Amino acid sequence: MPDISRPFLSVENLTVNFPTPDGIVHATESLSYTLERGKTLGIVGESGSGKSVSSSAILGLHRYSNAIVSGQIWLDGTDLLQISDNDMRLKRGKEVAMIFQDPLSALHPYYRVGDQIAEAYRAHNTVTKKAARARTIEMLARVGIPQPDRRVDDYPHQFSGGMRQRVMIAMALINDPTLLIADEPTTALDVTVQAQILDLLQDLQREFNTALIMITHDLGVIAEVADDVLVMYAGRAVEYGSARALLTKPSMPYTWGLIQSVPDVTGPVDRPLRPIPGSPPSLVQPPAGCAFFGRCAFSSLVPGDRCAHELPELLPIEAGHLKRCHLEDVSVMYAESVEADRVDTATVEAGAH
Amino acid sequence: MAAPLLEVKDLVMHFPVKSRGVISQTLGQVKAVDGISFTLNAGQSLGLVGESGCGKTTTGRLITRLHKPTSGQILFEGEDIANASPRQLKPIRRDIQMIFQDPYTSLNPRQTVGEIIGAPLVIHNLVPKNKRLARVQELLEIVGLSPEHYNRYPHEFSGGQRQRIGIARALTLQPKVLVADEPVSALDVSIQAQVINLMQDLQKEFNIAFLFIAHDLAIVRHFCPEIAVMYLGKIVEQAPREQLYSAPKHPYTKALLSAAPDIQQVIAGGRRERIRLTGDVPSPINPPSGCPFRTRCWKAQDICATMPPPLEPKGGAGIVACHFPENTSPEDANTPVSTARNAA
What we know:
The complex is a heterodimer of chains A (about 350) and B (about 350). With about 350 residues, chain A is of the alpha/beta class. Helices cover about 35% and strands about 20% of the residues of chain A. Chain A is built from 14 helices and twelve strands. Chain A is globular, with a radius of gyration of 22 Å. Mean pLDDT of chain A is about 85; it is low at about 340-353. Chain B has two domains: about 1-15 and about 30-225, 3-Layer(aba) Sandwich (Rossmann fold); about 250-345, no CATH class. Chain B has helices at about 55-65, 85-95, 115-125, 130-140, 160-170, 190-205, 215-225, 240-245, 250-260, 265-270, 300-305, 330-335, 335-344, and strands at about 5-20, 25-40, 45-50, 70-75, 80, 95-100, 175-180, 210-215, 225-230, 235-240, 320. In chain B, the strands form two sheets. A seven-stranded mixed β-sheet of chain B has the order 6-7-8-3-9-10-11, with helices on both faces. A four-stranded antiparallel β-sheet of chain B has the order 2-1-4-5.
């Protein structure tokens, strides 16, 4: 029986560690979030922040690797980390599906796209080849591929980048999954094609009432599609809240820094870019205090070196908006952005090494 | 006014498509760059934007003469280098350098940073051997890396630092023109701004002209006062950034801008209407007759199929190649972009 008290997807204290010869890589540390059907969660972070690792854990992709996974992943009342490999296999691709970043490397070059999509369907449904093919053509049409009855027999190299990503989406959606994870689905695409794909994903989400996790490093994409946003840094959630609250009132200096460091297509032309100095810390020996300490412009305002020695907890600042930061008065960040004095990043970065 | 530093006239690059077999036949031409012209003055930045396959990278590679153009002129300080021989090109290569997109594949993993940055000095034999190290260290310092790191290998650096190494290598010979082909698109967002600011500082300090090639409209807007939009090997609109972004004239520019995700818009309130471009960019082997954009354009009429629109001024600054341009009256030019979009 599904547990009605729990949200549709509830990730609780998820930790993923990878033992390596250099030590344990703490890829994701006690991550928790929830997601309801029909809603979109955006996960933002830079390379190595743990955003992809935490999402592949939902699909159980770490079961056959040396990763050490702990915590709970409740999907519709079932803890995905507790079920058998076979049960997970029955859910993977059916209830939970994933769209990968690079459609060229995610599609097999030797097989026709139709056969690859039909394989996903036949893995979970006992149907004839003919019925699977009909369903494949239907899905290709649904994701906007012209002449689907002919393109079904083409090979991946015969499709453009945007069309390949549509093929990936058709494959992910063929079993009507209730949870869809899109890992940087538009990063490899041009803006016009990106807009088409984002529109398509949102249309399909509305149609099938899918819960969508959108992993990206592009805050613009988040602004377009996400209901809630989770910002990750060095394996941990550092800010979590509604997209609107998070973009208009970022409360963790890292989120604020990300917004400050990207130019935009509207607004004043000569707004100086304020980069975040330095680079992210090692995940093998994570710092004792806040992982963002050293790159943060506001840690000096926190009394008593707390940022260097004490890991801040993820605490609510208002209903549904959490941050992991010792800084209490966030208004100093906004005052700073008005002054617009540019940090000499070159020297800061050189000094960090 | 003095002659421009770099002037490109009717530049064309057609790559032949050949059949396989013992006797290869030319089946067609990929019209990567199909007659473009622009000028670049000393210390200025020109942005080239467009979707993949529009010919912006080929343009950059023609100017650095990594390709030999099919026809047209590339005038550098008044001298046509379009057909120059490798021997004639060698001194010019000092003045026109390139920053590559991918900092992981554009640095030789088996060479130290010192060897990579010092290579241009060896090739052009400009600095005596015993002074090379000093110059390399000076360059490392200029791009914000520690001078003592000259003995390290590329894999010991992060993506942003590698791109700094690529920039240092391009600066070694004190070029007058830098072609930057997607210099930050491979970097994380928080690192992009560091590299952009570095390039802007260097431009001011050394008076370098940038041809800045990118698909990220926001970054191009930030970096370049003048921007050219390319589509299927042609420039379809070129204008100062203020005008291009607030009152785009070519329907393609308008569609491109409306597709770009924008945080500020969401912060300001509400999501805006997007112009949905249907279909893909047509093949550059067999581009549409007349206007190349007509197959995806919502304003296309019969004339667009028969007559290629000339690239010419249509009110306001800048030039546009369209029979039915938008935002042509002077009032439109002052309308903020959001209201212009709502009206559309």
